[in-house]
C-alpha cells in the first residue's frame, strides 16, 4: 500500500522515527542477550532489527518517490524501485513478526503441526502481505493478552497495547485503498505503538 | 494437575548463574551448602558453575574456618542488576528468561 500523495512527506518522517525506536528496542535486547545469553532476548533483538531495517527501507522508498516527484518531469518514480522498496518492507516485517510469533508459540505443545497448518493455509490462500502481517500480529497480541491476564503488570499492558495498535494500524492501512484517511489513521496508530515501546524502554533505564 | 509438587521448568545457564548469585548476595559470605539449598542444584553441577562464576569475576572466595566461603563481587552485582532488568523486559513481552 502506497501513501496518498498529500501524506508522502510526513510518512517519510514517521517511518524513520519508527525505524529509530525499533532499533533502540533491538539494541536494548541485544545488550541483554550479551549479558544473559537467553534465546528469547535474541528473538526480540532479531525481530526489532528486521523491523528497523524494514521501516528504514520503506522510508527511503517513499523519500525516493517524493524526490522523484519533485525532479522528474513525468512526475512519478520508476515503479521497479518503488515495488522493490515495498517488497523489502513487507518481507522483513513478516519475518520480524514471524520470529516473535515463533517465540510465543514454541512454548506450546504441538506447535509444529499448528504452524504447518497455518503456514500451508496462508501459502495456498496467498492472501495480501498486509493480511499475513495481521495474522501474525493477531497471534502475538493473543499471546500477550493471555500473559497480561495472568500477570496484570503495567509493562505487559504497555507492550500488549502497542501490538494491539500495530494490529489496528495494519487493518486501517488495508482499507487505505478505499479511503486515504484510513491510511493516515493507520500510520498514526503505528507511531503511537512505537512511542509506547519507547516509553517501556524509558521505564527499564532506572535502577531496579 | 501438579498435586502440590513444584512445577519444573528448564533454566538457562544465565538463569542458573542468577539463582546462584542471588543466593550468595542474600547471605553475604556463604558456604557451598547454603548455595546448594537455595540454587536447587547437585553438588557437582554447582561446583562447576561456581568455578565458572569465579573465572568470570562474578564471585570471589575466602577461607572462613578452614572452609571456602563465597561472596559476590561488584561485577556480580552488576550482572544481577542487568539480569533483573532483562527479566522485567522479557516479561513485559510475555517471554521468560
Keywords:
heterodimer, A: 208 residues, mainly alpha, 7 helices, 84% helix, B: 97 residues, Arc Repressor Mutant, subunit A, 3-stranded antiparallel β-sheet, globular, disordered N terminus
Output the CATH homologous superfamily of chain B: Winged helix-like DNA-binding domain superfamily/Winged helix DNA-binding domain
Radius of gyration of chain A: 18 Å
Quaternary state of the chains: heterodimer
Amino- and carboxy-terminal Cα gap of chain B: 24 Å
Give the tally of β-strands of chain B: 3
The helix count of chain B comes to 4
Q: Please state the structural category of chain A.
A: mainly alpha
Greatest interface (CB-CB under 8 A), with counts per chain: A-B, 30 and 22 residues
Runs of chain A in which pLDDT lies below 50 for 5 or more consecutive residues are none
Order of helices and strands of chain A: HHHHHHH
Main sheet of chain A? none
User: Main sheet of chain B?
Assistant: 3 strands, antiparallel
What's the structural domain tally of chain B? 1
Strand content of chain B: 5-15%
Q: Layout of helices and strands, plus pairs?
A:
The complex is a heterodimer of chains A (208) and B (97).
Chain A: H1 8-36, H2 39-71, H3 79-105, H4 111-125, H5 129-151, H6 154-174, H7 180-205
Helix pairs in contact in A: 1-2, 1-7, 2-3, 3-5, 5-6, 6-7
Chain B: H1 13-27, E1 30-31, H2 32-39, H3 43-55, E2 59-64, E3 67-72, H4 74-92
Antiparallel strand pairs in B: 1-3, 2-3
Helix pairs in contact in B: 1-2, 1-4
Amino acid at each position: 500500500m502506497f501513501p496518498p500523495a498529500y501524506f508522502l512527506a510526513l510518512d517519510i518522517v514517521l517511518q524513520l522515527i519508527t525505524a529509530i525506536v525499533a532499533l533502540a528496542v533491538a539494541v536494548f535486547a541485544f545488550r541483554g542477550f550479551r549479558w544473559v545469553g537467553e534465546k528469547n532476548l535474541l528473538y526480540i533483538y532479531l525481530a526489532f532489527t528486521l523491523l528497523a531495517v524494514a521501516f528504514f527501507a520503506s522510508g527511503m522508498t517513499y523519500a525516493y518517490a517524493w524526490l522523484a516527484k519533485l525532479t522528474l518531469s513525468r512526475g512519478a518514480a520508476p515503479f521497479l524501485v518503488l515495488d522493490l522498496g515495498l517488497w523489502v518492507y513487507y518481507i522483513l516485517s513478516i519475518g520480524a513478526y514471524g520470529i516473535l510469533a515463533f517465540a510465543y508459540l514454541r512454548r506450546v505443545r504441538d506447535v509444529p503441526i499448528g504452524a504447518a497448518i497455518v503456514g500451508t493455509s496462508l501459502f495456498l490462500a496467498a492472501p495480501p502481505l498486509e493480511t499475513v502481517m495481521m495474522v501474525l500480529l493477531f497471534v502475538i497480541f493473543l499471546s500477550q493478552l493471555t500473559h497480561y491476564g495472568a500477570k496484570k503488570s503495567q509493562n505487559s499492558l504497555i507492550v500488549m497495547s502497542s501490538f494491539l495498535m500495530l494490529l489496528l494500524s495494519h487493518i486501517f492501512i488495508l482499507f487505505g485503498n478505499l479511503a486515504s484517511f484510513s491510511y493516515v489513521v493507520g500510520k498514526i496508530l503505528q507511531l503511537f505503538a512505537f512511542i509506547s515501546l519507547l516509553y517501556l524502554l524509558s521505564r527499564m533505564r532506572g535502577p531496579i | 494437575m501438579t498435586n502440590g509438587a513444584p512445577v519444573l521448568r528448564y533454566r538457562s545457564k544465565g538463569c542458573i548463574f542468577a539463582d546462584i548469585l542471588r543466593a550468595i548476595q542474600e547471605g553475604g559470605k556463604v558456604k557451598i551448602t547454603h548455595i546448594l539449598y537455595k540454587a536447587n542444584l547437585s553438588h557437582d553441577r554447582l561446583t562447576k558453575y561456581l568455578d565458572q562464576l569465579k573465572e568470570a569475576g562474578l564471585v570471589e572466595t575466602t577461607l572462613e574456618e578452614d572452609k571456602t566461603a563465597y561472596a559476590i563481587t561488584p561485577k556480580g552485582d552488576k550482572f544481577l542488576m542487568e539480569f533483573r532488568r532483562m527479566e522485567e523486559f522479557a516479561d513485559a513481552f510475555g517471554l521468560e528468561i
